[in-house]
Amino acid sequence: MLTEKDFKSKTFPDFWNLTVSKFANNKAVGFALEMEKFLTYKQLDDLQNNVSKLFAAQGIKAGDKIAIWSVGCPNWGASFFGAVNHGFTAVPLLPDFSAQELTTIFNHCEVKALVVEENLLQRFEKCPENLPELVFSISDFSVIKGNKEITLESVKDNLLPEADVKEEDIASIIYTSGTTGRSKGVVLSHKNLISNLLQAQTIFPITDKDVTLSFLPLSHVYEFTAGFTYILSYGACIYYLAKPPVVPALLKAFENVRPTAGMSVPLVMEKIYKNAIKPNFEKNKVIKALYEIPVFRKLLHRVAGKKLMKTMGGRFKFFGIGGARLDPVVERFLKEAKFPYAIGYGLTETSPLISVSNPSQTVLGTIGLTLPGVDMKILNPNEFGIGEVVVKGDNVMAGYYKEEEMTKSVFTTKEDSCGEGYFKTGDLGCMEEIKGAVRLSLKGRSKNMILGPSGENIYPEDIEFVLNQYVHITESLVVMGKKGLRAIIKLRDNVHLKREELQAQIKTYINEKVSRSSRIEEIDFIAEFEKTATQKIKRFLYEVN
Fold this sequence. Notes:
With 545 residues, the chain is an alpha/beta fold. It contains 14 helices and 26 strands. It has a nine-stranded mixed β-sheet with strand order 2-1-11-10-12-13-14-15-16, sandwiched between helices. Strand 3, helix 3 and strand 4 form a beta-alpha-beta unit. Helix 2 crosses helix 3 and helix 5 crosses helix 6. The longest helix is centred in the middle third of the chain and has 18 residues. It starts with 11 loop residues before the first helix and ends in a 20-residue tail after the last strand.
């Protein structure tokens, strides 16, 4: 394990040199479905050095932007360290970005080079001229576009150029695909990212014997910090699914790797619960009746939890869930099943972790404890103590790339009650003492809050959680419609009821369970929602203008 005392400076070169010196012969990264293919820390170090030599030989200079567009794989780490350890800036890209989105990003931050999973280049078949001037294959770092005579093999004996990397230098620019529209380039320094991985060590210490399975995009900073740099700081091993996390591939990967730790977004666990666990509690009248009695529900949850643990390899001691809000019914199941889940909260702008609870600290309905070094406050709380969550700390970004006014708008000023310099998360929450510790509870996004006709604060996420418990519903979204609150609903497969009958049933179901101000007036159905990388619905696409 690396600690803050080990660092001369909070930079990736310092982090990586310390890591390799401690864990040179440990397995570092590999493939979950081909476990014989792996790199040790020393081998990954040699590769990232050669990758950097390749970049330099192709004319890339300190400060130049190198984009990485791929699912998680061992060579993703070599690409990232090959950039940031030697003075270049990494620009991780989400695998589901379109050619149009990417072209905008390439131009906005002046990307010099692209390291890419080759099958993704098909999206640029109609506009190859929009690619950066240098393109490398992430599978073997062969040159797709550039001087093809300069190869990884030909530069091995080159000397690396000197790189004086400082804490405040830009390590990464991360373009978010957010729920509110426009993609922004979040500027994260070496100090931001290294500080957050050190803060994360207070969550749940692991050892160099631990093994993780990574199936989320490394271009999302949640997986990057919690599932990549944090794991490497302990000398543990990361196995990559290296393909979309469909259930059959995930189950095979769990069986192969038998991970002791891992990270996920809520949707993965929510799908497992609704498709594989909940139906067992409803399969006959006797079990369904017993399930309504708390003592029997807990027993059924415990049995189901043991089966779930076995299905996921049987060795989990830490399963982090973050990136979006977890359905409270699913969380109750995990708690009563004694599954070792942890809840994390943060944003790309905060590198990302702000508040976390480990498996022994989770309390239903709360996010957890504020990380050391993070100064959290509630801005302008109402009579219930609910206000916008604002934070300050070494993990908070400098700003948005080339967006001075946008950056100013997300930080507090002297006029604000908390003082200036706090990052405004846009999330509504409250802090209260529970079980001897002050914990954060989230209530929704401030931009999502709907002002009712009588001035009531309506939190659509709360209504959606109730809707999602209905037997035929998999996902829902509540927005203000022309007649009042409107629910947009994705149904389960094989629902054969008529549209009008379903609308009436769902409206009765939800309106009996919510307050008068939160009742639904309109219901529409949708085949699929468009989502962000962490599987949050892009709300702005469905709001009535």
